[in-house]
């Protein structure tokens, strides 16, 4: 067995991992105890990385050779790399020659490595002469960039992870840190345990698991963050908690801000934000008195039409109280993706250049042109993500290169995005997975390496650069993103007017290290100077930036001397006006829909969605509303409802959740067309949750408002329903899922998800398919579903009543002790027996005694069937009923009960992602005692 140190490819915490491999196969993963981001810990996603890289999953999901589509709608056919890149260069060159360089665009990803990002940036801005290169980091971090630059002068988080243990107050705004950054939340829990006097404030419209464990939860109305922050500053000034000496010495613009926040009295802010005045006063006092204060924030602030204002308004609080540049203090933006920070460092956005240079600055453009050896870098601003796809939809952009991202799932206003992909003359998708929604629109698909195969660097939220190392060789014909891009660029150079001043190639790279060295040189003398870092030094351990040549180590905290990255060295207060959400509720759309993450999934789930065990916590998609809303509307749990915005509609089962306030709703961001679909009455395929979201964006950062939309909820009258599930061999289950997903548009509503635990002793994976329609499905369609789930043979038990639209099929197999076990079922029409039949299958209970009851519509089981219940702990498959039962045998303080619970069931003793939920259940048991 071989061990390789690398970095987790999920969130911006940037955890170190040790990959175990044998030959060409990754066999295990564990946290790196020497990595300063996680010290050996991993969350549910990171700890299952090796399972997503199994041979069975790779064979069923990976893009393993270049594919070319002769015409839209046709199946893509294999093609050699040379032919594929020749065609790409020819098509891009032809578009540039006929329509100019701005008729092409590159859309990248925060999951690319820094070296990948650098090469693409240079292709667009250096070789082609267009600034149309943007990234899905625009969807997650551009407001944080703009907020830092507007106030502190540079895009650089001033704090570090170590500040958690020094803080006396932690203020979390717009982040469900317990789910989105679990390992950082473990460090927060450690800090609170070591300092019981620490205060945790959480501002979030929902009562998330993060808010549940807070000392103070501020359930503000969606989009009212600026009003809250202005109100806190009003109180800080009123109660004399600002640092007047710091303001006078190190800042400018405070007078204008003071005048701006004068009207934001506690009473006014309480009305605007929907909060209690006393809670606002308490938050201000803890922020200003119980210092040092550290703020953590993420997409709840960033993904907004006023995202830059929200970021800057929070930074105002730190400047006004002097809570910056000292241990335990500062405004700390938590990066969403693993290398969104690295992309920002190399200028991988349409308005940036390498090393935090601004495209609008002539001197900065000249510096980059000189470094690259080209006559100039174009001055015209490039198109940001939303603008780029709008331009493609309008016919302005005619060739798109998309790398390592899935815009047909992740972008807002999916109707426009899909029109762009359909109308664009030439779409290249460079991707590791063949199963994403975007793959269906690509003319050329290029197989890319992914985690466990790539080589380069990433930068996490605290400015720490880590090495990414390959544990195994690339499967099939997959290539590294930077290498394929360089091969394309060299071909394109031959077809464009030569831009290199020395007559050589702009892309002389022999490996990722040579790309890194050029990027490193671009930072010399800049705020993020990394001239002191080489691959050899990074191989000794991750390093913080800035780290100039000759410096022993990187700087943990910025602005300790009170000197900021502005021309006069002073930070700037931002006196912004409060603006509500771009799309407020009204009589037609009376519900505020918010989006967020699931604990155990990542983005569009092209990787995490391959594991049944990661669906144990939230098994199926749904829209969450308050229980009182269910009662008021007369809906039952699980009823299908139309969720409709001004852009489109999706159908989802409704779930009761007291974490959501009345007149609000919540849907996880992950549910795209790959998992949830159907066909609207007008014949439009339902394309996932982002169909609903507006394309409105922040004018400063151009980050779209992906977090909020005004919607209406109407019950869907779908009298015919279908539920089918089966255990399938692990090397066939995901292919069956793909074929079932192709059938989803045959229904008004359908979703398809895996379930189970990998590795399973029997080598199987569960697949669940749920659908609904106004009329019973045709026999041919039902036969296809039964065949894919293995219940079409003569061994299956079956019942059918075509007149009533009833259809049932069961496959039983021999189980332990000779007792039959249900291995697959199809319920069509009447699915009232869902709970107990589904439990028989998923919990693998003996089924011999249920006989004909399995086939009778609406039948109750002849004996009790006790389902295991909702999973809480993914690592040890521990459910909520098991935890509640064990807590009846626990006593003492909440901490003592948690220790006893973990001793009994082991829950929370591995990755720890379930600990916030365990604490909530423990508190409930204490209150009930």
UniProtKB/TrEMBL annotation:
<dbReference type="InterPro" id="IPR006656">
    <property type="entry name" value="Mopterin_OxRdtase"/>
</dbReference>
<dbReference type="InterPro" id="IPR007419">
    <property type="entry name" value="BFD-like_2Fe2S-bd_dom"/>
</dbReference>
<dbReference type="Pfam" id="PF04879">
    <property type="entry name" value="Molybdop_Fe4S4"/>
</dbReference>
<keyword id="KW-0408">Iron</keyword>
<dbReference type="InterPro" id="IPR041957">
    <property type="entry name" value="CT_Nitrate-R-NapA-like"/>
</dbReference>
<dbReference type="GO" id="GO:1990204">
    <property type="term" value="C:oxidoreductase complex"/>
</dbReference>
<comment type="similarity">
    <text>Belongs to the prokaryotic molybdopterin-containing oxidoreductase family. NasA/NapA/NarB subfamily.</text>
</comment>
<feature type="domain" description="4Fe-4S Mo/W bis-MGD-type">
    <location>
        <begin position="1"/>
        <end position="57"/>
    </location>
</feature>
<keyword id="KW-0534">Nitrate assimilation</keyword>
<dbReference type="InterPro" id="IPR050123">
    <property type="entry name" value="Prok_molybdopt-oxidoreductase"/>
</dbReference>
<keyword id="KW-0560">Oxidoreductase</keyword>
<dbReference type="Pfam" id="PF04324">
    <property type="entry name" value="Fer2_BFD"/>
</dbReference>
<dbReference type="InterPro" id="IPR006655">
    <property type="entry name" value="Mopterin_OxRdtase_prok_CS"/>
</dbReference>
<dbReference type="InterPro" id="IPR006963">
    <property type="entry name" value="Mopterin_OxRdtase_4Fe-4S_dom"/>
</dbReference>
<dbReference type="InterPro" id="IPR041854">
    <property type="entry name" value="BFD-like_2Fe2S-bd_dom_sf"/>
</dbReference>
<dbReference type="GO" id="GO:0016020">
    <property type="term" value="C:membrane"/>
</dbReference>
<keyword id="KW-0004">4Fe-4S</keyword>
<dbReference type="GO" id="GO:0042128">
    <property type="term" value="P:nitrate assimilation"/>
</dbReference>
<keyword id="KW-0479">Metal-binding</keyword>
<protein>
    <submittedName>
        <fullName>Assimilatory nitrate reductase (NADH) alpha subunit apoprotein</fullName>
        <ecNumber>1.7.1.1</ecNumber>
    </submittedName>
</protein>
<dbReference type="Pfam" id="PF00384">
    <property type="entry name" value="Molybdopterin"/>
</dbReference>
<keyword id="KW-0500">Molybdenum</keyword>
<dbReference type="InterPro" id="IPR009010">
    <property type="entry name" value="Asp_de-COase-like_dom_sf"/>
</dbReference>
<dbReference type="GO" id="GO:0009703">
    <property type="term" value="F:nitrate reductase (NADH) activity"/>
</dbReference>
<dbReference type="GO" id="GO:0051539">
    <property type="term" value="F:4 iron, 4 sulfur cluster binding"/>
</dbReference>
<dbReference type="InterPro" id="IPR006657">
    <property type="entry name" value="MoPterin_dinucl-bd_dom"/>
</dbReference>
<dbReference type="GO" id="GO:0043546">
    <property type="term" value="F:molybdopterin cofactor binding"/>
</dbReference>
<keyword id="KW-0411">Iron-sulfur</keyword>
<dbReference type="GO" id="GO:0046872">
    <property type="term" value="F:metal ion binding"/>
</dbReference>
<dbReference type="Pfam" id="PF01568">
    <property type="entry name" value="Molydop_binding"/>
</dbReference>
<dbReference type="GO" id="GO:0045333">
    <property type="term" value="P:cellular respiration"/>
</dbReference>
């Amino acid at each position: 067995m071989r061990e390789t140190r690398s970095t987790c490819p999920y969130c911006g915490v940037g955890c170190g991992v040790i990959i175990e491999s044998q030959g060409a196969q990754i066999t295990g993963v564990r946290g790196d105890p020497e990595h300063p981001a996680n010290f050996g810990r991993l969350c549910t996603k990171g700890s299952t990385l090796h399972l997503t890289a199994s041979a069975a999953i790779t064979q069923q999901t990976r893009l393993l050779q270049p594919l070319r589509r002769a015409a839209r709608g046709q199946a893509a056919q294999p093609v050699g790399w040379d032919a594929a890149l020749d065609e790409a260069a020819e098509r891009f060159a032809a578009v540039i020659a006929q329509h100019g360089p701005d008729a092409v665009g590159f859309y990248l990803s925060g999951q690319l490595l820094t070296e990948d990002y650098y090469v693409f940036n240079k292709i667009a801005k250096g070789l082609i002469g267009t600034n149309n290169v943007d990234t899905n980091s625009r969807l997650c971090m551009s407001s944080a960039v703009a907020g830092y630059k507007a106030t502190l002068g540079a895009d650089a988080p001033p704090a570090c992870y170590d500040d958690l243990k020094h803080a006396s107050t932690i203020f979390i705004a717009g982040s469900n840190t317990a789910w989105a950054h679990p390992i950082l939340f473990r460090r927060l829990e450690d800090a609170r345990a070591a300092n019981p006097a620490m205060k945790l404030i959480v501002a979030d419209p929902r009562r998330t698991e993060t808010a549940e464990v807070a000392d103070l939860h501020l359930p503000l109305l969606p989009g009212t963050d600026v009003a809250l922050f202005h109100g806190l500053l009003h109180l800080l000034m009123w109660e004399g908690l600002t640092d007047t000496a710091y303001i006078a010495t190190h800042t400018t613009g405070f007078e204008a801000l003071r005048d701006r926040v004068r009207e934001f009295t506690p009473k006014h802010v309480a009305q605007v934000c929907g909060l209690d005045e006393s809670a606002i006063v308490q938050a201000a006092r803890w922020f200003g008195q119980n210092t040092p204060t550290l703020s953590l924030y993420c997409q709840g602030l960033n993904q907004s039409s006023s995202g830059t204002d929200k970021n800057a308004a929070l930074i105002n609080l730190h400047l006004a109280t002097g809570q910056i540049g000292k241990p335990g203090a500062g405004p700390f933006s938590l990066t969403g993706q693993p290398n969104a920070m690295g992309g920002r460092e190399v200028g991988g956005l349409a308005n940036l250049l390498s090393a935090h240079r601004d495209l609008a600055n002539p001197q900065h453009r000249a510096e980059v042109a000189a470094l690259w050896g080209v006559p100039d870098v174009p001055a015209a601003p490039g198109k940001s993500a939303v603008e780029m796809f709008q331009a493609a939809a309008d016919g302005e952009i005619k060739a798109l290169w998309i790398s390592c991202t899935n815009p047909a799932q992740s972008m807002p206003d999916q109707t426009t995005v899909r029109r762009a992909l359909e109308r664009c003359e030439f779409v290249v998708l460079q991707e590791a997975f063949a199963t994403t929604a975007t793959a269906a629109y690509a003319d050329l698909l290029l197989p890319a390496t992914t985690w466990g195969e790539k080589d380069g660097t990433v930068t996490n939220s605290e400015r720490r650069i880590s090495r990414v190392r390959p544990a195994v060789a690339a499967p099939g014909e997959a290539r590294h993103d930077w290498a394929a891009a360089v091969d394309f660029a060299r071909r394109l150079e031959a077809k464009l007017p030569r831009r290199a001043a020395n007559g050589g190639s702009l892309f002389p790279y022999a490996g990722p290290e040579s790309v890194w060295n050029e990027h490193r040189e671009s930072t010399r003398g800049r705020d993020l100077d990394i001239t002191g870092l080489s691959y050899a030094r990074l191989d000794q351990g991750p390093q913080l930036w800035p780290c100039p040549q000759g410096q022993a180590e990187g700087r943990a905290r910025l602005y300790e001397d009170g000197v900021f990255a502005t021309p006069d060295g002073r930070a700037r207060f931002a006196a912004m006006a409060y603006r509500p959400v771009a799309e407020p509720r009204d009589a037609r759309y009376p519900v505020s829909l918010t989006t967020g993450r699931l604990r155990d999934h990542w983005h569009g789930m092209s990787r995490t969605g391959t594991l049944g065990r990661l669906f144990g916590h939230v098994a199926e998609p749904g829209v969450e509303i308050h229980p009182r809303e269910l009662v008021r509307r007369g809906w039952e749990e699980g009823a299908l409802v139309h969720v409709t915005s001004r852009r489109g509609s999706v159908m989802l089962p409704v779930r009761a959740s007291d974490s959501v306030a009345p007149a609000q709703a919540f849907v996880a961001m992950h549910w795209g067309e790959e998992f949830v679909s159907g066909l609207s009455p007008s014949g439009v395929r339902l394309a996932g949750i982002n169909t609903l979201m507006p394309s409105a964006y922040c004018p400063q950062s151009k980050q779209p408002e992906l977090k909020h939309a005004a919607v209406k909820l109407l019950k869907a009258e779908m009298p015919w329903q279908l539920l089918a599930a089966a255990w399938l061999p692990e090397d066939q289950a995901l292919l069956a899922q793909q074929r079932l997903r192709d059938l989803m548009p045959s229904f008004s509503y359908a979703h398809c998800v895996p379930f189970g635990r990998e590795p399973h002793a029997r080598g199987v994976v569960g697949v669940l398919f749920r659908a609904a329609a106004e009329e019973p499905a045709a026999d041919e369609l039902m036969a296809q579903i039964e065949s894919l789930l293995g219940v079409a043979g003569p061994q299956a038990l079956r019942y059918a009543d075509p007149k009533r639209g009833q259809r049932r099929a069961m496959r039983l197999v021999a189980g332990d002790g000779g007792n039959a076990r249900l291995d697959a079922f199809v319920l069509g029409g009447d699915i009232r027996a869902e709970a107990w039949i589904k439990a028989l299958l998923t919990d693998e209970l003996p089924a011999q005694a249920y006989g004909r009851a399995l086939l009778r519509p609406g039948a109750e089981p002849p004996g009790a069937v006790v389902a295991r219940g909702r999973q809480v702990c993914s690592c040890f498959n521990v459910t909520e009923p098991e935890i509640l039962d064990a807590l009846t045998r626990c006593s003492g303080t909440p901490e003592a009960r948690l220790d006893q619970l973990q001793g009994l069931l082991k829950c929370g003793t591995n990755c720890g992602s379930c600990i916030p939920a365990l604490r909530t259940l423990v508190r409930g048991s204490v209150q009930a005692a």
